[in-house]
Amino acid sequence: MTSCALNCDGEAGVTGPSTFGELLRRWRERALFTQEELAQRSGLDPRTLRRWETGESVRPRGSSLRLVAEVLGLTDDESLELAAAARGATLTVPDRPHQLPPAPSHFVGRHEELAALHARVAEGRSVIAVEGMAGVGKTAFAVQAGRLLAPDFPDGQIFIDLHGFSDRMHPLEPDQALARTMRALGVPGDQLPVDVEECAGLFRSLVADRRLLFVYDNVAGAGQVAPLLPATATCQVLTTSRHTLASLDRGATIRLGTLPRPEAIDLFARASESTGPSSDQLTEVVELCGRLPLALRIAAARLRSRPSWQLADLVLRLQEQRAAVLDRLDDETLGVSAALDLSYAALDEPTRRAYRLVGLIPGPDIDLGAAAALFGTDDVAARSALETLQDLHLLDEGPAGRYSLHDLTRAHAARHAQATETAQDRSAALTRLLDHYCAWASAAMDLAHPYTRSRRPEPPYVVDPPDWTADQANGWLDTELPNVVAAARAARELELHRYVGDLAGLVHRRLIMRDRLGEADVLHLLALESADDLGDRAAAARAHGDIGRIRRRQNDYQGAADHFAQALSLAAADGLTLVEVEAHIGLAATVQYGGSPVDADEHLIRALRLAEDAGDELGQLESHSTVAHARLSEGAYRTAVSHFDQALALARRVGYRAREVDALIGRGRADAELGRTAAAVDGFRRAVALSREEGLPIGELAGMYNLGNARRRSGDPSSALDSYREVLAVAVRTGNRNWQYEAHQGMGRAYVDLGDGRSALEHHRQAQLLAERKRLRADLARAEDGLGAAYSVLGDPAGARQHWQTALGLLAELGVDHTDDPETSRDAITQKLTAN
User: Which CATH number belongs to the domain containing residue 306 in this structure?
Assistant: First the structure.
């Protein structure tokens, strides 16, 4: 692969989307085939392959593409991308993430290691594992190397701390790390497969042939990082770990030892701003610090904070601290612990206490407000303590006033907290922190999502919430969600069960709306465990309902139905009306999309009646929306319009923008079926505009797709194809399989209208494949119906009949006469069979 030198100054150009010929040539060369060998194995003319690769001819038949994909061993996603490129679909490049931390200050030396890393990259080693003892500077080295390599990876740089060695913090599971990586690449959380292997496959397809740099910090072991490795040589991965990761494919190892003495002296001198100290004393300082960068920076900060000290004073105190810890630490961490103990001993007692308590934080970092709550002080005192700790390199300040600790510093602080603070004091500090997160999460949700207030707990917190704007509230929620989940986990471990359920209930809808389904799953399972331990039936009912919504978003409809049923049973028995409303709605939606023969109407009628009796506007909105979609799928369009209108009014009244978009699109679909094309097109355009304004990508996709449908129904299939191609491009880019299916299905229908049976067949087969992978029988019935239409256009009545009969069989298995696509219904297919 192409790589610039680590000290290069130039910037690489941004690559555009790959053409069909470029993709074909790249994957042929990957398979080590010549054009003649590929032609022989696929049965195609070598001249045809040559024209495809040079761009002279880019209209291959679907059957030819499938042969080539099979011979080259392409994945399903690669086959879809090749087909899209052959049709000329533009695959837009997502926003390029630039997540590397700032360049480390006072970075010195490591010239040999950087040169070795550069040589491995130039050799094509796409995974470089940086290993070494704690405190040796692995993260700083990886960030420095990453920043020097970044110009060679213009599609973006992603940095993720896997927390493999953090005290009191759980290492990121592979599925959590994958979810963070995929979100950084623009994939919505609800489109992430639940299965780790399937999600890893989607990740590899998404990054194929893109030039991306990944830095995975603090890797616990090869198993944690293996699913995060791309399968393409165009990407580069840097990992840091205290362990050897030799088992990683295509890997090379750079081992960092302690700094050579001259470099250690240079680092200390720069960090301490020392001028002309005695060489012998300086040498003794760096040796007492073990020549570890972390210890050297801490010792330098200590000297800098004591203007009256000479270097000899620092040497003496380091010797004393080293002797004090000699009997309880291994040689590797002696220098760091001696430096930490020296700085700790010099603190006044309030700052020592702040340091000890910071060692107890359950999440990755902390801000001023949370620190003040943890310390039990006001903001002024908390800020003073934090700044003192930062000045002494006991804390690192990140962006936007956030503070974090190195793993060794966290362990040191926690050890002093355990030894000095009573169990009661430690519990009180964490309880104050939990109160803070609950109060601030409640205030943030009030501003960001006011319509969810009736669904959130309102415990009597004693913490005053901040005076925020809506934008500040949104920013706090997105930033603090990892800390909230970690806090709930800590509360569970400390048997502070009330906080687990409260935190889960407070941020549930935010996690769902941000598609952070993995974190939501962890949080609500903890809440359910705590509710069961307490024997709190109301909390258990809420947790079951929340888990049901998560399972439904993950397309686990049976799991969703099980949790909704348990929520309904508990809520009905205990008179929890709002929980009962949501459970009925959840069961109705699960029935519709999961293909169960159970009638959803009972649940919808009951939910709407309960919501109206309780004056529950959100419940009424969700009920009307679900009823409207049910009537739409049954072909009862006027009834659907009535319910969509009520849902639209309620959504606007409570300020639920996502539901407003949904109602606009649903009403537009019903208008289109009633022949009111102008009204439908207007509704879809308003939905797209509102989605873009509010940052709702799924609404934007749905609006564009339905705009294509309206154009096709009005007799303009060519314009419809433009809309569907736009949907497909975005869906492929984001890995959204649901919308890939809808785009292919729409394009197949449009090609049938144009009389192009071969193209229609190709797209409906892609839709069929995607429906089978999603295991959704209603969507499979729609694809089979489309295949029947394609064969009919091709003049193959037997093939058409076979697929239409398959579609009817699927509808019979589902126990329904309609799907949510009005073109796929029992009556419509029967008419086609009769006419055929």
Answer: 1.10.8
Is position 806 within any domain? no
φ/ψ of residue 251, rounded to 5: -100, 160
Report the distance separating Cα 225 and Cα 491, nearest Å. 28
Q: Are residues 221 and 286 in the same domain?
A: no
DSSP tag of 366 = B
What global pTM score does this model have? 0.63
Last residue of one domain, picked from the residues 331, 346, 361: 346
Strand residues in 309-416 grouped as ranges (E): 396-397, 403-404
Asked if residue 138 is part of any domain, the answer here is yes
**How would you class 447 by CB atoms within 10 Å of its CB: exposed for 0-12, middle for 13-18, buried for 19 or more?**
middle
Structural domain of 333: 259-346
In a domain, 77, yes or no: yes
66 to each of 34, 44, 70, 765, 796, how far by Cα in Å? 18, 12, 6, 11, 21
Amino acid making up residue 186: G
Is 540 in contact with 531 (CB distance < 8 Å)? Answer: yes
Residue 143, amino acid: V
**Residues 276 and 211 placed together within one structural domain of the fold:** no
**If we measure between CA atoms, which residue out of 665, 647, 556 comes closest to residue 608?**
647
- pLDDT tens readout for residues 339-381: 677 778 778 899 999 999 999 999 888 999 999 999 999 999 9
Contact 240, 217 (CB under 8 A): yes
3-class state of residue 217 by DSSP: strand
Asked whether the CA dihedral 194, 198, 200, 201 is positive or negative, the reply is negative
Look up residue 456 and give its two tokens. Answer: 């959130």
Domain count, the chain: 3
- Going across the sheet that includes 213-217, the strands are 157-161, 213-217, 236-241, 127-131, 251-255
Write out pLDDT tens, residues 292-344: 777 777 777 777 777 777 777 777 777 766 555 444 444 455 556 766 777 78
Residue pointed to by tokens 């010195």: 108
497 contacts 369 by C-beta, under 8 angstroms: no
Residue 648 CA neighbour count, 13 Å, CB half: 18
Q: How far is CA 134 from the centre of its chain?
A: 29
Q: 471: which residues sit within 8 A by CB, 6+ positions away?
A: none
Sign of CA dihedral 739, 740, 744, 745: negative
**Alpha helices (runs of H) in 454-496, residue ranges in sequence order:** 470-493
Q: Which two tokens stand for residue 518?
A: 């993995």
Pairing relationship of beta strands 157-161 and 251-255 according to DSSP bridges: unpaired
Are the C-beta atoms of 564 and 588 separated by less than 8 Å?
A: no
Q: What is the enclosing helix (H) or strand (E) of 127? A: strand 127-131
Provide the β-strand partners of residue 127.
Answer: 237, 251
Distance CA 468, CA 488 (A): 24
Residues 6 or more apart in contact with residue 408 via CB below 8 angstroms: 134, 135, 294, 333, 336, 337, 340
Packing angle, helices 62-72 and 20-30, rounded to 10 = 30
> What amino acid is encoded at 470 in this protein?
A
Q: Indicate whether 303 belongs to any domain.
A: yes
Q: Give me the residues paired with residue 239 across strands.
A: 129, 216
| 621 touches 656 (CB < 8 A) | yes
Same domain, 247 and 275: no
- Asked whether the CA dihedral 287, 293, 298, 300 is positive or negative, the reply is positive
Which residues, 6+ apart, have CB-to-CB distance to 819 below 8 Å? 633, 778, 779, 781, 782, 811, 825
Closest by CA to 659, choosing from 646, 669, 642, is 646
In whole angstroms, give the CA distance from residue 359 to residue 369. Answer: 16
243 token code pair: 């362990």
**In terms of Cα–Cα distance, which of 244, 223, 229 is closest to 138?**
244
- State the Cα–Cα distance between residues 453 and 618, nearest whole angstrom: 10
Q: Measured between alpha carbons, how far apart are the two ends of the chain, in Å?
A: 56
Could you list the beta-strand ranges (E) of 218-292.
236-241, 251-255
**Model pLDDT for residues 446-490, shown as the tens digit of each residue:** 888 888 888 888 866 666 777 788 778 888 888 898 899 899 999
